Amino acid sequence: MKISRRGFLHGMAAAGALATGTAKAAGHRKFDGYPGSFGLLHDTTLCVGCRSCEAACREVNNLPPVEVPVGDKDIFRKKRRTTEKAYTVVNEYRKATETTPAVYRKHQCMHCNEPCCASVCFVKAFTKTPEGPVLYDPDVCVGCRYCVMACPYYALAYEYDDPVTPRVVRCTMCYPRIKKGLNPGCSDACPTGAIVFGKRKDLIKLARDRIARFPDRYVDHVFGEHEFGGTSWLTLAGMPFGQLGLHDGATHTPIPEMATSYLSVVPLIVTIYPGLLLGMYAFTKRKEALALKEKNKAVADTLAKADEETKKKLADAAARAAKDKERAVNQAVKKAGAEAKKAAEKKEDEK
Amino acid sequence: MMHTLFDFLTFTKGSTYLVVAVFLIAFIPFWLFLTERQEKQSTVRAKKK
Amino acid sequence: MNESPSERTGIITPFNVIAAVILAVGAVIILIRFVKGLGATTNLTHTNPWGLWIGFDVMTGVALAAGGYVTSSAVYLFGMKEYKPIVRPAILTGFLGYFLVVVGLIVDLGRPWRLPYPFVVQAGPTSALFEIALCVALYLTTLFVEFTPAAFEWLGWKRWRKVVVSMTVALTIFGLLLSTLHQSTLGAMYLATPTKLHPLWHSPYIPVHFFVSSIAAGISMVIFESMLSHRVFGHLVEISHVQFDNITVGLAKAGSVVLAVYFAIKVTGISLEDKWHYLSTPMGHWYLLELLGFVLLPCILFAVGFREKKTGLIRFAGAWTVIGIILNRLNVSIIAFNWQLPPDERYVPHWMEIWVTITIVTFGVVVFKWIVNRMPILYEHPDYRGMH
Q1: Is B26 near chain A, with CB under 8 Å?
Q2: Cα-Cα-Cα-Cα dihedral of C356, C361, C367, C372, to 10°?
Q3: Which helix (H) or strand (E) holds A148?
Q4: Which of A31, A84, A116, A142 has the most C C-beta neighbours within 10 Å, making it the best mutation to test the interface with C?
Q5: Torsion sign, CA atoms A119, A121, A123, A128
């Protein structure tokens, strides 16, 4: 019995390994996303840390204005992240030196081609639109915050201080504006052209073009083209992306593919377990029935054997008794004969 | 037309959940069909005894 | 049999008073949470949206409630009838455990009244959490049904009891199926965070890690809970000390095997992804503490305890394994998660989060005590003796 449990465990381990290793989400198929979708190109070599984008974003989204006014460089002492009031933040990643300017990067939701947030949401609150932005539907959100927990870019925020209608909050790529043919607020506000809005395909060409024209200015890589399946936001930089708070050397595999790989085992377990476990149960019952049968047979045999032995004993006893009786009868006859003889002799003597 | 992996996964996993639910439910009458004769036989045997 | 100790000594016992205080303060904190929002009673942040309530109440709670499916499968599917006396306490622990998991989840969710949404409004079938929600809901129902025979015996509802008992095998199979799924998928949730969970804990095998360790958790919790029950409710226990010790010794053998398998799977995982070099880092040392101190060590203790028939050692190993499971689940969810962030961005639970967790556990213990004192959990109801 212990073997069956152990074997069962080993089987499970093997099944899990098999499934996670070989079950690719869509087999051989490639998904190219929506053609003609929009994106934004952020050229960090052009960013001067003015934070006009932050201010514009607040205005466009009817958020309270920035707490620390634009132009105050003290804010860069500590790295900031997006919050429920700040859909985007600019951070300083290298201080200015005598010869080189400071390096800044604007951070916000990357509007991934294969969004991790969408794949982990158990009420499908996220949608990747054909235009490019990833949208969030607060009308179905249950507030589990798996999306906030999973986003590799730490882009999502949550309204922890709202007890009744807390929402997940993030950059929307100004979807309403894009639908009207306008540009996102941040790209319009950027004074240096560090943010360019356009078709993603065109932006990639533009980025490659810049790298080709100024090879000493840029790291030869367009970040966001392929990382984790690619994002709508593309970034150019003059220093390694790992030092800008981005994932250097990230895989091209979309996170949804990694996250859902194991789920292909679920139907396997559901279809195998009932038959397998009922089979084990039947084996157990069969073993018990056989054991019971053998036990009964052993008891019956013993009884039968005892029966025969008893019969034999009775027969022997009967035979012995018969012999004893015969002997007794013979003795009695002999005795009677002897007595009769004695009585006859006595009578003769008396005559 | 499925443009994204996410669309594909939503469709395939959604339909697969339904398929296995049907299978699980259908397994019950299937198993009962398989074993009801045995059950009958064993109770008859027990009754005979 | 049905007279509870409190009816003899009154309702004011030290345990009851302490429990009442814990529950009262906890209720107030939960009220504040719902009136002012999660921010008022937790240290959750945008960077750390999951804290103690998910890491302990949900993830650890599910693992420690695994005794229900492990023991019922052993007895009803694999024919190990000698363990029947511990099935009912294990099912009760499981049922209360899962119920408390749902309570903890309701306190943590942003909009808990929307919990049925994935099933009735819009489903997100790509999410591991969808599968977990579905399986936990179904399994909680299964455990509840598996628990009802004890309640029906107490109530004298013979017909209902008969109906449920006839479904035992089907319920056990369904329970094992659901448990395999959701125990493993709780680990699979972290496949979505390859950049945030430390490489020693993150693995494509993480669902297998979680499932196998849940078996060890179930076995160890049964050893631990039965030890406590026999001490506190000894007057209700029917089986002899010898029989109980034999059960404990048998469980040790199973526990040792499961922990050995779990250890092997973890080491294999490290080898397959060439992660040996992580072991010499500070987090690596912490990982080795968990793996060697709380997996390999209790495995050996269980093995020795089984061979030498030392029930004291076995019970210690059981408690030690429970601590190890708690440590593993907290490592995955809180300690090794976001491990590379600077200290000021790391999560530490708010005292209110800790208090609510203790409240939930206390509530479970109180209900467990109430049920065990009244219903045939630790003993057989005289009207139904030998009828299971």
Answers
A1: no
A2: -170
A3: helix A146-150
A4: A142
A5: negative
Query: E-assigned strands of chain A?
Result: 38-43, 89-94, 103-107, 126-128, 134-136, 157-158, 168-169, 195-199, 233-236
**Residue A168, helix vs strand vs coil:** strand
Tokens representing A194? 């560090």
State the SS3 of B2-16: CCCHHHHHHHHHHHH
Distances (CA, A) of A63 to A138, A155, A227: 17, 17, 31
Domain boundary (A218, A253, A288) is at: A253
Amino acid (1-letter code) at residue A79: K
Residues ≥6 apart with Cβ < 8 Å to A85: A58, A63, A64
Q: Which amino acid is at C299?
A: C
Question: Angle C128-155/C158-166 helices, nearest 10 degrees?
Answer: 140
Q: Same domain, yes or no, for A95 and A172?
A: yes
What is the rounded CA–CA span in Å between residue C328 and residue C317? Answer: 16
Is the ipTM higher than 0.85? The answer is: yes
What tens digit of pLDDT does each residue of A68-95 get?
887 788 899 999 999 999 999 999 999 9
- Give the dihedral sign, CA C320/C324/C325/C327: positive
| Residue tagged 């056989």 (tokens) | A290
User: What is the token pair recorded at A231?
Assistant: 């994002």
Q: Which domain holds residue A272?
A: 261-351
Instruction: Point out the residue among A31, A130, A267 whose CB comes nearest to the CB of B5.
Output: A31
Query: Quick one: tokens of A166?
Result: 């807390």
> How many structural domains comprise chain A?
2
Output the pTM of the full model: 0.89
**Residues A181 and A270 placed together within one structural domain of the fold:** no
- Best CA proximity match to A142, nearest among C296, C119, C362, C374: C119
Q: Which of residues 109-138 of C touch A (CB under 8 A)?
A: 109-112, 114-115, 117-118, 121-124, 126-131, 133
The answer to whether residue A107 scores a pLDDT higher than 90 is yes
Q: Which of A253, A272, A289 is the last residue of a domain?
A: A253
- Is the same domain home to A56 and A135? yes
Q: How far is B26 from chain C (nearest CA, A)?
A: 14
